[in-house]
Specification:
The longest helix is centred in the last third of the chain and has 27 residues. The chain has 18 helices and 20 strands.
């Protein structure tokens, strides 16, 4: 494609949102007009499905749930007065609570003000707040935020050690929709114990964000925690950033949550337009479909050229892969859909895996996230007439060009600066693109049966562990793995039992292993006396 043709294609397919200052360039994805025409019936169906979803249709039939994260940024479109009231009252509560914390009206017993936030969550309850904190928190926020987003004991210890004596002035946000998800429950129990070891009453430091009536809701109210904020049944974790899950920690950090919501609302309005060329989310979905042949045959590499957007690819990883990674379509056919997502940031990755992207396996398409503003204030010249920001821009354009020369497709999303409004718009843009793409490939984007299967399997292993320990204590003598498996009624689960006893032994949990760990069949297992 010669330069003139490419320039014309750039102009022909360039999307620009004047209010947000956002550009979407898909000219380096080499679809043709015939492909676009072939896709129009699918997009007409997708536009209709999205309109039905926003009107309150049951979009998650597995759980008989509506999907209403779009209502969070515009309560006026919610399908009932009760939902509208729930959204607006929660937002008012968030703002009032943050104001009282900043003013010292709500404060810890032994300090003048809260200085830190410890957010305990998993998946979307952690990734969204982490991304927004990294992107938007001021250098000197009113409260510094820390995260426990796993059930790793050493990771929990490290976060608590970093807080040190500031635990006395740390506000703990406990996030769990059901209140029974193991990772946030475990984190809460570990942190609660840390407070108790210092003679502090956990309730004076704790907030819950959960579904009304959940185990966590009941616990928080019975113990008199500082506050409880709702998680709505119709908002999934990976789309919860505009709920209390994301807005409360953002407000506490001094981030303008009204601007975040406005940016998302503006993008929602733009992505409701039932015209492919004037709908940026539909254009993204078109490109995803074309590059992967509607089968996710190419990975999505996300490269934001801004340090503050480092976690955007990680945020999108969950949003895209949990939403689109499905075994069956809506008709029950085995389809194994999905798009793998990875990325870090530019120009760091130009000194890492971009080498493979240009010269290696062509199994990807790339999304550049470009930010026009280099910094607040003036920049020095690192060379005559050239600043550090000029280098960042030049390296991005150079990489885009070098990849295109090797027929590697790319999309470029450009925003004027990183601020709450543009970050809200980016979140909303990809929310909608995922929904459109799911419709194009006929899958349910709003459930996660694979995640639930993993949780069920983990519960079965922990139940097996309890049986193993019980049998060893009753045996009173060492047992081989085979004998142990027979006695717990799981003769086909020897490998699992081996890994269970190995873990218990390594952590002095009442199990001793006699013999060479590298030869499992020869081992003897006993309860520690």
């Amino acid at each position: 494609m010669d330069a003139v043709t490419l320039w014309n294609r750039y102009q022909d397919w360039l999307y620009y949102h004047e209010g947000l200052g956002l550009f979407l360039d898909i000219s380096r994805v080499n679809f043709d007009d015939y492909f676009v025409e072939q896709m129009r019936p699918k997009f007409e169906k997708a536009f209709q499905a999205m309109a039905a979803l926003e009107a309150g249709a049951i979009a998650n039939p597995d759980e008989n749930r509506m999907v209403g994260h779009y209502w969070l940024r515009n309560p006026d479109i919610a399908p009932s007065p009760e939902i509208r009231q729930a959204i607006t009252s929660t937002l008012e509560h968030i703002k009032a609570f943050a104001r009282d914390v900043h003013a010292g009206t709500i404060k810890p017993p032994l300090a003048e003000r809260f200085t830190d936030i410890l957010s305990i969550g998993i998946g979307g309850s952690a990734l969204g707040p982490q991304f927004v904190a990294e992107a938007l928190a001021p250098v000197h926020p009113p409260l510094h935020i820390h995260f426990i987003d796993n059930t790793d004991p050493a990771g929990i210890d490290r976060v608590l050690a970093e807080l040190g004596d500031r635990l006395y002035s740390t506000l703990v946000i406990n996030i769990s929709k059901s209140g029974g998800t193991p990772e946030p429950r475990n984190g809460m129990l570990e942190v609660k114990r840390a407070y108790e070891q210092k003679g502090l009453q956990f309730a004076n430091y704790a907030i819950a964000i959960t579904t009304e009536g959940s185990k966590l809701d009941q616990l928080a109210k019975s113990e008199g925690w500082l506050a409880v904020f709702p998680m709505f049944d119709w908002v999934g974790g990976r789309t919860s950033e505009m709920s209390a899950v994301g807005l409360l920690p953002a407000a506490l950090q001094g981030i303008d949550i009204d601007a975040l919501l406005v940016g998302a609302k503006d993008m929602d309005e733009a992505t409701r337009v039932p015209d492919l060329r004037r709908n940026p989310a539909a254009l993204l979905a078109l490109c995803w479909y074309f590059t992967g042949n509607g089968r996710g045959e190419k990975d999505m590499v996300v490269l934001p050229y801004k340090d503050s957007l480092l976690l955007f690819s990680r945020y999108l990883q969950q949003l895209v892969m949990e939403s689109l990674g499905k075994e069956k379509d809506l008709d029950g056919n085995i389809v194994h859909q999905g798009i793998a997502v990875y990325g870090n940031k530019g120009t760091t990755d130009q000194h890492a895996y971009v080498q493979q992207l240009r010269d290696g396996v062509p199994n990807f398409f790339l999304t550049f996230i470009e930010v026009l503003e280099d910094r607040q204030g003036e920049s020095i010249e690192v060379e005559p007439g050239v600043t550090s920001g000029d280098y960042l821009s030049g390296l991005m354009q150079g990489t885009r060009q070098a990849l295109f020369e090797k027929q590697r497709p790319s999309i470029t999303v450009t925003i004027p600066q990183v601020n709450p409004r543009t970050v809200g718009a980016l979140i909303a843009l990809y929310d909608r693109a995922v929904g459109f793409y799911a419709s194009l490939v006929n899958i349910n984007a709003y459930h996660q049966p694979g995640v639930e299967a993993g949780k069920k399997a983990a519960a079965e292993i922990l139940d097996l562990q309890r049986k193993v320990v019980s049998v060893l204590r009753e045996a009173g003598q060492p047992l081989s793995l085979a004998d142990l498996a027979d006695k717990v009624g799981a003769p086909t689960q020897i490998e699992v039992i081996y890994k269970v006893v190995r873990h218990l032994s390594a952590n002095d949990r009442g199990v001793t292993i006699i013999g060479n760990l590298g030869q499992p069949a020869t081992l003897a297992i006993a309860a520690t006396r």
